[in-house]
């Protein structure tokens, strides 16, 4: 088995530490890795035994997860020589998984995830303002430009993740960078805001541009505040979407009760 | 500058050079192995480095935790991005092949042709040191990356290089130096601190703009670094 390098890919197969519903956690992890392109279409997964060891789950749990992934159409298993489990990238299935995940999470979970992401991104932006070289700032700008022109939802999401990871690298911090990678494996399990309201992409792009401008001006306090409030805005979008769904579900549930 | 300070600059500069040359000696062995294969085979389609190359990582006193060859892609000949790179696993100390993510559509895409450690030797035909940098899409470590071109001009075949963790470089250099001299700062050509014995100048930070003109300080031959002495907590004095 190869050693997956590049921390993003390593994080995909890092041991799971959320105790309950572990097979679902495996499904989510693999789903988000496909969404971020860390697992490519047609790529072969490690063997069952190896995968179970890497993720620190039992082979029974892993088989349950693989069965679910097959049912969803995200993994295809071929028998015989050259056989194994192969990844299938399907944007429609990933979008459904994201909706299901949003439904599962409470507003407090979303707020917590946003709190940590805000803390990491704000710290990275503050440090980057005094540590990023001109080359690195140019690279950040280039990534934001690519985000603005990315045409697919998947492409937008990946480029957005890349922006945050490069921002943390500009802070010269391995630990902040690893935190960002872990966070994006979680964040990418949720719906991408512009998928529901395309206009939000402009808000995201403008938010990132403002942070990069502050970094270029070497204004650490402004970079920090802008990054923090931008992540806060996005957390609110996720919570609003969650509440809208809840309202819709309650409304239709109420009708059903009225009928029955 | 008093003669005493000049002596200190010379002593620290010599120690830095010694450590750097030690790593470049390893890089040169990787380069030579690659050149021998190139002369033999012509087209780099199969592996260029003999399997034994990775043993360099396990030599006593080796500072590098990663080394190898990064091949210049040649799309017209159907030759894609390719690395022959080994790294020491931080866990069990064994060496393994690095297999980074070379898919352009991935969040983890490692576009090494745009990386400074690849691009500078390609453009200039000369060796280069990058860092300290967070090697996001490669090894995930905090590194100095030392590279030199294999072949030159039209025959540029890629770069040979080695990764040295920032911590290992610092520990080794300070040990080599023995008694610490006056506080000093080593900066690279981006004004970034490579190593510092002045607590207010942190590794990885950029020198403040008021710290004097770039180009001040003593050059370290063969690397894009300068050495500055710190006077009473203030930078810089060459």
TrEMBL record, chain A:
Q: Which residues form the HTH gntR-type domain?
A: 20-90
Q: Which Pfam families match?
A: FCD, GntR
Per UniProt, which keywords does this protein have?
DNA-binding, Transcription, Transcription regulation
The answer to whether UniProt assigns keyword Transcription to this entry is: yes
Give yes or no: UniProt keyword Transcription. Answer: yes
Q: Name one GO molecular function term.
A: DNA-binding transcription factor activity
**Record's protein name:** DNA-binding FadR family transcriptional regulator
UniProtKB/TrEMBL annotation, chain B:
What is the protein name stated in its UniProt record?
Answer: Cache domain-containing protein
Family matches, as Gene3D superfamilies:
PAS domain
